[in-house]
Amino acid sequence: MEILAFGVQSDEKPLIEKAFAGKHDVRCLDVFLNRDTAPIAAGYEIISTSVNADLGGGVLQTLAAGGTQMIAQRSTGFNNIDLDVAERLALRVSRVSSYSPYSVAEFAWTLAMAVNRRVIRAAGRTRDFDFRLDGLLGRDMHGRTAGVIGTGKIGEAFTRIAHGFGMELLGWDVAENPACAELGMRYVDKEQLLAEADVISLHVPLLPSTHHLIDKAALARMKDDAILVNSSRGGLIDTSALVGELRAGRFLGVGLDVYEAEAGLFFLDKSLEGVDDDTLARLVTFPNVIVTSHQAYYTEDAVGQIIDATVQNVDDYLAGRRGDNVLVPARPGS
C-alpha cells in the first residue's frame, strides 16, 4: 500500500521514508493539505497530514469521496480537524498524543532568553562590526518569577529549567502537577500569576475555553517589563490586543513560535511575494519581539518520535486495532 504524506519538510522526508521502509511505500509532498490540494489524495486509503493542514468539513468530504479512510496527523494538537464531520464520514483519525516535551520547553526558554539578552539585535550588530553594548542590557533570571500556564509534560519541563535558573515558580492549570509542586511551584489563580510573573509561558491546548486566553484584560494585568512566550498555539493570544500593548511601549520582550493566523504562512517561503497580514507585519517590526515559524517541536528526537507514532497509528489501523492515539474510529468496534 502507498501512503500519501502532506506537508513534509525536507528534513523530515528521509526520516519518514526510513520509518515506513519494508512496510509500505510512502509518497511525500511538500504541499499542505487544504481545499485546493485535497483532490491529490484521490485513490489513497491512508494519508498523513501536518499540524497546519486544513481538515475542515469541506476537505474531509473531498477526502472521503476520493476513497480516503484513514488520516494520520503528525502532531499532538487537533484543533484543525472537524472531528464531528470525520465521524459522520466514517474516517479514522489519529494523532500523536505525545513526543519529547523537552523540545518545546527548551525552545520556549530559547525565545525567553533571546529577547531578554537582545541576542538578535546583538548578532545583527556584530555582523556589521558594531560592538557597542548600548541597548543590550538584559537581566538575571535567578531570583525572578516564572509563571507557567499549563503544567502538563511540556509545562513541567519548562518548570524544571526555570527551577535550574533559581526562579520562583507560579503555576496555573485545571489540575496541579505533583512534580511541579515538588519543585516549589505555587498554584495560584490566573490573575495573580499574570500580575506577579516576570516570565509567562503558555503550555495549554487551544480549545474554545482557551481561545484568546491572553486577551486585552490579561495583557493589562501583566508587568510592563514582563516577558511573554507562546510556543503552544497562536489562538491563545489576541494578537491585535498584543500589538496595541507593544505600541504603548509595554513588555521587556515577547517570543512567539506560533501565530493565530499562521495557516497559509508558516512553513512556506513568502520572502518574494510579501505578506498581506497587517497584524503580523506590524508585530515583527517591534525590536523586543521575536517570531519564529512553529519550530519548537522541530528536533531530531521529537520528529523521530512523531514519525514512529504515525507508523504505529497506521499499523494499528490496518490491523483493526484502536490505539491510544485514535481520535475518531473508522471501523465499528475498532
UniProtKB/TrEMBL annotation:
Sorted keywords for this record are: NAD, Oxidoreductase
**Which GO MF terms does the UniProt record name?**
D-lactate dehydrogenase (NAD+) activity
- Taking every annotated instance into account, which residue ranges of this chain make up the domain D-isomer specific 2-hydroxyacid dehydrogenase catalytic? 8-326
D-isomer specific 2-hydroxyacid dehydrogenase NAD-binding domain residues = 110-296
Per its UniProt record, what Pfam families does this chain match?
2-Hacid_dh (PF00389), 2-Hacid_dh_C (PF02826)
Cross-referenced CDD domains: LDH_like_2
Name under which the protein is recorded: 2-hydroxyacid dehydrogenase
Q: What's the source species for this entry? A: Streptomyces castrisilvae
